[in-house]
Amino acid sequence: MTKGGPSRRGEPMRLADMPLHDPFVVADRERRTYHLYTSNVPSVSGVDGTGTMVYRSPDLRDWTRPVVVFRTAAQEGIWATDGAWAPEVHAWEGRYYLFTTLHDENRPLPVPAPNQWGVPFRTPTHMRGTITAVSDSLLGPFTVLDPSRPVPPEHLMTLDGTLYVDPSGQPWMVYAHEWLQTIDGTMEAVRLAPDLSRTVGDPVYLFKASDAPWTAEQIPAGVPHQLAPYVTDGPQLYRTPDGSLLMLWSTYEKNTAGGDGTVSGGYVQTYAVSRSGELTGPWRQHRPLVRDDSGHGMLFHTFDGRLMMILHRPFENARGKLYEMELRGHELSVLRRREDLDGGG
């Protein structure tokens, strides 16, 4: 096998060879196997259609060819068949629940009113949101719980829903409300029913992308940076040893390109902390953990107890990158990049 090239069937795959956007790892201690979920890539899985596939490994270095665990085409009456972005699998009440984002460009949403700066919305929006599906196995097949609609309110354009269970045992879905509807993207949360199939009550606002002060610090004075989108992507919640609540999330770091005031920037992996330990915050934003067109990361523990973060880089034609992490109280930092596992690059 050559670095960055496809492996022959029967040979283990390496992260450098594996198409991997929005990676999510489940460490199955009973079977001493890491399960790495991502959107289905038919040329790799050998299965056509939109869905979710999973790679497996005993050591984070050598991986099996992926198995498809969810297909939208197999879900009777499902409201959307495109996307299947950002799949996550969570253990809950003795079963496994898949969260993944679908969308339907043929189901437009009403155009929002102009934002707080009076800027009209020109980009059409359509139905997009996270569904939940259930299985008795990490290898599926997963069956959608409510095929008629996404879990968050369907008039909102949302993505990247993740599971959070508060100290009282109440499950929540935390998701990103798309900048396409808000310009300044937000993180929001909504309570879930015990079977995770539907919401209970109204969404709760957590924070907005521009709350991270560094997002616009490279933009010169006088440039109307509020006219450019502020993106929220990829929330994942983690309880720290000191009782704080940490949220990994991704956005774009802004700067100006050329002399016309155009705002652009690169994808970054960052995080926020709720020192109160409450989902409602207040949330304090921290500086990015990883730049270089990297993001949508998540934290997990290895079988020998190390805290690891996996993310994808670059945004296009993404591959998984692994980092050994350190927590000091509620402060998260990168100890080292694990190029021995992810193949460098």
Automatic annotation (TrEMBL):
Q: In which pathway does it act?
A: Glycan metabolism; L-arabinan degradation
Which Gene Ontology BP terms does the record give? carbohydrate metabolic process
The UniProt GO MF terms for this protein read:
hydrolase activity, hydrolyzing O-glycosyl compounds
The family database entries (InterPro entries) matched by this protein are listed as:
GH43_arabinanases, Glyco_hydro_43, Glyco_hydro_beta-prop_sf
User: What is a single Pfam family found in this protein's UniProt entry?
Assistant: Glyco_hydro_43
Instruction: Give the keywords, sorted.
Output: Glycosidase, Hydrolase
Q: Which Gene3D superfamilies match?
A: Glycosyl hydrolase domain, family 43 (2.115.10.20)
Hey, which family's this protein in? Belongs to the glycosyl hydrolase 43 family.
In its UniProt entry, what is this protein called?
Glycoside hydrolase family 43
User: What organism is listed for this UniProt entry?
Assistant: Streptomyces viridochromogenes (strain DSM 40736 / JCM 4977 / BCRC 1201 / Tue 494)
